[in-house]
Description:
Oligomer: homodimer
Structural class of chain A: alpha/beta
Amino acid sequence: MFSKSQIKLIKSLSQKKYRARHGLFVIEGKKGIFELLSSPLELHSLFTAEDIFDAAEEKTYLITEGDLKKVSNQQSPQTALAIFHIPEVVQPKAEGLQVALDDVQDPGNLGTIIRLCDWFGVEDLICSQGTVDCYNPKVVQATMGSISRVKVHYLDLAEYLRELPKERPVYGTFLEGKNVYREPISPEGVVVLGNEGNGISPEVEQLITQKLNIPQFGKAMTESLNVATAAAIFLSEFSRRKPTGK
Amino acid sequence: MFSKSQIKLIKSLSQKKYRARHGLFVIEGKKGIFELLSSPLELHSLFTAEDIFDAAEEKTYLITEGDLKKVSNQQSPQTALAIFHIPEVVQPKAEGLQVALDDVQDPGNLGTIIRLCDWFGVEDLICSQGTVDCYNPKVVQATMGSISRVKVHYLDLAEYLRELPKERPVYGTFLEGKNVYREPISPEGVVVLGNEGNGISPEVEQLITQKLNIPQFGKAMTESLNVATAAAIFLSEFSRRKPTGK
């Protein structure tokens, strides 16, 4: 059974301000917990209905599924919930392929993009301060464990881009951009993706050095691709041109 | 104000069996309704708090946002809701690039895939009988209007693939598949995508003529890509190689 203070802590961690205050976040589900336990992330506490984890005894609490239901954020019932410490991230190095998000709002989109970064070996994900928090429970869930391997940096995006070395290209997707399949692009650069409704903000747009576009092969009625979908296509396109591609 | 029978009808249409019985589905939100009104789909009735639509008067009902809240499936409040007739679809022709889904379960994934088909000019989406219904309100919402332009066919997927002309390639994604970026692939074929948890079923696997894989550029810890993300990368890869690509 959960103690009152444990319930209070878990519930509070669904809010960003409490995650920041405690430096903790919640993950639900066996699969994700296994992944995070085998990562460098530090466990705070583990609540489980099945004694199947190899975690420190003093941090493990056996509970029932019924207990879990009371604190769960999930629609489908889980048998385990864990609290991990939010890792500190150092300033991102300006190297390799990086992805930057300009106020992406949807937790599912951010989670999918983190998973994509992991798949395509993108180590640093740069987020504007207005981007949804990556330790939001819905984001954590959508990353399927990738949250432990991709470094997510929240910073002033325009300032970050302004201070990049001049030779480092900054790509962005625009309707008037050039065909991403035909343009020379370098996997040593930053790919900026914009907000779901408004795209890339004017301030950040000024810092884009190469405007790209995913050409539409259909009858050109759709307005735009979903941001996570666009991220998938960009990362695929940049990665396949890497000389080191498997 | 809604009549009692209208409320009953709208609520019933959140269930597949009533959508099938009435041949109707619901869409919420101005943007989607505008798109569907300008499509060949036939309007059944329109409920709106703003008199901004160019629809037949006898099918239009002015309501308040409060009325709408009572019947809405949406988390964020909308100002309009419409009911459309489900169109009849004819047997798909075996030509061009087609996408087939083997028991995709998540409404958001199906909606995103329909939107992708629209973007990449894929006219026919073939779904196994176990795939989530495309007129599910969450799917309709995620398609952002593309539901009116892509023909979605529900049929026995194995039987459909078995009866294709022999020269038509059937692609599927498998861990042991060959690098999609390097294999010769033809945009005259079928791309099969599997269920979120179990992938492509053994029966369908036997009918795949070319096994493909999206290579992982990261440290190979992630298990797989989300099915909608994989669809985005496959469609991008097949489309960019089309001789007619813009």
